[in-house]
Every structure is written in structure tokens, then in C-alpha cells.
Amino acid sequence: MNHFKLIIDFDSTFIQEETIEVLAEIALVNNPKQSNILSEIKKMTNLAMDGKLSFQEALKKRLQHFLHAIFFILFLYKY
């Protein structure tokens, strides 16, 4: 049996939102800088969509803003 992998970028195509922005919003709840960080993430998304920033660079920069919060949430959930 042949297996294959399918990768789909469904943000702003199948759904109306950018998943990374939704994840950031959840991860940054109660963060006093949430609004500023979300603004920066959206700015980087737009730069990537306009071709002014590569997908990889935009992803890396956006994740740097809230990845630590995701790990903290996962840590709390585990314990």
C-alpha cells in the first residue's frame, strides 16, 4: 500500500483566520503585552503574504513571540 503525506495551508483559505494568530491569542492570555505581541505577529504575517518576508523567517519570528507561553501551558497541563 502506498502512503503519501498531504500538507495544506488552510489559513485564510478554508477558514477566515490565521491559525498562528489564534494560537498566540490563546497562549498570551493574561500577558500584559498581548496586544503589542499580536500586532507584531499580524505584521509579520502580512509581510510574508506580501512576499517581503519568507515563510520560514515569518514562522520563526512569529513563534519566537509566544512559543515559551505554549510550553508553559503544556507543562501546567501535564502536571
In short:
The chain is mainly alpha-helical.
Describe the structure.
With 79 residues, the chain is mainly alpha-helical. The protein is 62% helix and 0% strand. It has three helices and no strands. It has helices at 19-27, 34-49, 55-78. The longest helix has 24 residues, at 55-78. It starts with 18 loop residues before the first helix and ends with a helix. The mean pLDDT is 84.
Essential attributes:
mainly alpha, 79 residues, 3 helices
What topology does this entry show?
Layout: H1 19-27, H2 34-49, H3 55-78
Mean pLDDT: 84
Number of helices: 3
Order of helical and strand elements: HHH
**Beta-strand proportion:** under 5%
Q: From the alpha carbons, calculate the radius of gyration and give it in angstroms.
A: 15 Å
Low-pLDDT segments: none
General form: globular
